[in-house]
Amino acid sequence: MRRHYVYALVDLDTGLAMYIGMAARPKTRYLQHLKEHGASRKCTWVQVKIKEGKTPRLLILSQHSTEYSARQFEQLLIATYIDDGINLVNTRHCHPL
Q1: How many Cα neighbours within 13 Å face the side chain of 36?
Q2: Which pTM value belongs to this model?
Q3: For the chain, where are the E strands, in sequence order?
Q4: What stretch of H or E contains 70?
Q5: What would you report as the CA-atom Rg of the chain, rounded to the nearest whole angstrom?
Q6: What is the chain's pLDDT, residue by residue, as a tens digit (97 residues)?
């Protein structure tokens, strides 16, 4: 059975998770994030950090046996971070190179 993971992209300057995501292959998805370009907050943030020499770090937060469970946890974390005042850059408008 394929595992699903909830992960964060962490800002090296602050140590804060700035993006929360879910993937079956988080390392592959991480590399995709680093190559994406677009006008979204996430794409802009990632590209600025790369240009500064401070590429965001991948942090695996949890592992799940179903996609549904992972998606539920991802959404809970996003809501919790927002409620705690963390300005996540989560959006869905990036375009791969």
Answers
A1: 20
A2: 0.90
A3: 4-10, 17-23, 57-64
A4: helix 67-83
A5: 13
A6: 799 999 999 999 999 999 999 999 999 999 999 998 888 899 999 999 999 999 999 999 999 999 999 999 999 999 999 889 888 998 654 444 4
